[in-house]
Amino acid sequence: MNARIHSWETMGSVDGPGMRYVLFFQGCNMKCQYCHNRDTWSPSGGRIVDLDTITGDIESLSGFYKHEDGGVTASGGEPLLQSEFISNLFDSVHNMGLTTAVDTSGHVQLNDMVKSVLGKTDYLLLDIKSFNEEVHRKLTGVDQKLVFEFIDYLKQIKINIWLRYVFIPGYTDSNDDCRNLIEFINLNKNIKRVDILPYHHFGREKWLKMGYKYPFENQRLPQHDEIEFFKSRLKESTGVIVK
């Protein structure tokens, strides 16, 4: 069995607990205007890698991942577009005694294979772009329907969620944004942690190198005190870890 892989990182420390083997799957069905992995969008890009090669590589390094709940994270792109591969991969990962994680936007059809992956996922890293429909569409090019259907399913299976929220001045940083995020966290008891990710320009060079204009060329960066105030409100109003 094969998958299209953009790249992988063998000693990831920010994509789930512990030390992790992070696979960045090729292909994405969102078009985020600030994306720092613009080169992962095309489903025909990347390289074709077979399952045995990946599992062999993970197993050879598994000793590094067996502490502090470490393991393997499927990221992207949108990894759940290649769910059959991930489902089989996660079987092998669990057999090695490692944990599994998926980093996803949730903008996917909830078919049986996606549900199979979620049933084998120990940690779900969920990237929420915005709770405002107009802003969400402007940032990503798609509406929120699939995302909220996905979230409703996560409630049913009670999976551990680490929420990821990109803090973008003028888009996701308002009082309403903060209140909506607090309400969402408090309504979803399976959210264990929230990472507030400050918007940055690091992906700009990839866009330009690929011959595209960077849409957020004039977007200002958030200030430290803005981010800390936003975090403090979350900490005061929710019972989850806020990073």
Any chance you could write out the topology, listing elements then pairs?
Layout lengths: L1 E11 L7 E6 L21 E4 H11 L9 E5 L7 H13 L3 E6 L7 H8 L3 E6 L4 H8 L4 H13 L2 E8 L7 H13 L3 E8 L5 H6 L14 H14 L3 E2 L1
Parallel strand pairs: 2-4, 4-5, 5-6, 6-7, 7-8, 8-9
Antiparallel strand pairs: 1-2, 1-3
What does this structure look like?
This protein is an alpha/beta fold. It has a single domain (2-242), classed as Aldolase class I (TIM Barrel, Alpha-Beta Barrel). The chain contains 8 helices and 9 strands. The chain has helices spanning 51-61, 83-95, 112-119, 133-140, 145-157, 175-187, 204-209, 224-237; strands at residues 2-12, 20-25, 47-50, 71-75, 99-104, 123-128, 160-167, 191-198, 241-242. Strand 4 (71-75), helix 2 and strand 5 form a beta-alpha-beta unit. The chain is globular and about 50 Å long.
Biggest β-sheet: strands ordered side by side in the sheet: 3-1-2-4-5-6-7-8-9
**General form:** globular
N-to-C terminal Cα separation, in Å? 37 Å
CATH topology: TIM Barrel
Estimated helix fraction: 25-40%
Low-pLDDT regions: none
For CATH, the homologous superfamily is named as Aldolase class I
Kindly state the number of beta strands.
9
CATH class annotation: Alpha Beta
Provide the succession of SSEs: EEEHEHEHEHHEHEHHE
CATH hierarchy: architecture = Alpha-Beta Barrel
DSSP summary: helix tally: 8
